[in-house]
Amino acid sequence: MAWLVWRQHRTAFLLLLAMAAVATAGLAWLAQDASSAVAAAEEAKASPGAAAALDAAYQRLDLLGLALAGLPVIIGVFIGAPLFAGDLETGTAKFVGVQSYGRWNWVATKLGMAAVFAAVAALSTGIAMKALWTPLVNHMAVNADFTSTGGFDTTGPVAVALAVLGLLIGAAAGLLMRRTLPAMVVTFVALLAVKTVWSQLRMMFATTVTKTTGGGRFGEGDSPKVPDNAVEIDTSYVTGDGSLRGWSTCTDAGDSSACLRRHGVVGWSKEYLPFSHMDAMQWAATGALAGLILLTVGVLVYAARGALR
């Protein structure tokens, strides 16, 4: 059975692996280049050329992250959607029930093999992407926001989970639509919706750090310093009872210091997310994605029962 599935879908699988291999090699080379640029910029007497090379590395980072974030969509549209829709559209799925291996064995083999290739592609590119992000984040995270789509969704276990989710959504759409092109369109729209919602939810899994000052020290120079490898989440004033006031409080006042004192402000509160917390954040997010994957599997099983009667 595995051999038949391989022969039927090997072109798509091999193209995915080839694309992932090229992307991984390119990212690995750029990671080495980024590390060299950071090392040159951190030298005691950095040259203007070193600063320019580092700026170029940061600019590439955003573009590469956004491009690689499209991998789950590519997998869902071009591998997941045609996985079953092609057989249902041509009528070859009708012969599955009369074979010795059975319908559910056929479904499981197809999904399992496709999931392996999707996971391998996401894992290899994710490792290389993490190697590219790491030196740039450690040097200056303000220019390399690792909580963004390009940093968070393309590395670690989240990248693999999103790739598998994309595949399953595509496969479920193929079983529901039973035609390849409509299934590809539905998959594309569904995955764009999922990624849009996901971008609003990922910070729920962050474990941030908060630093405060007190004693009536709320000047600009009194604000706590955020580590270079951390992303700033929020900056506020803190009052004597621990409540927060927005940093724009009293900005229009003639005497801002007196105004802040009237509001009970005694210092600053700064919330940030260190890069060292990213792994825990990603595993927590992967747990949530696993729940969504199980839900999608349930929809897929329901769709398969209807399509393979």
Automatic annotation (TrEMBL):
Has keyword Transferase?
Answer: no
Which UniProt keywords are present, listed alphabetically? Membrane, Signal, Transmembrane, Transmembrane helix
Q: List the signal peptide residues.
A: 1-25
Q: Which domain of life is it from?
A: Bacteria
Provide the transmembrane region boundaries.
64-85, 111-136, 156-176, 183-201, 283-304
Return the protein name: ABC transporter permease
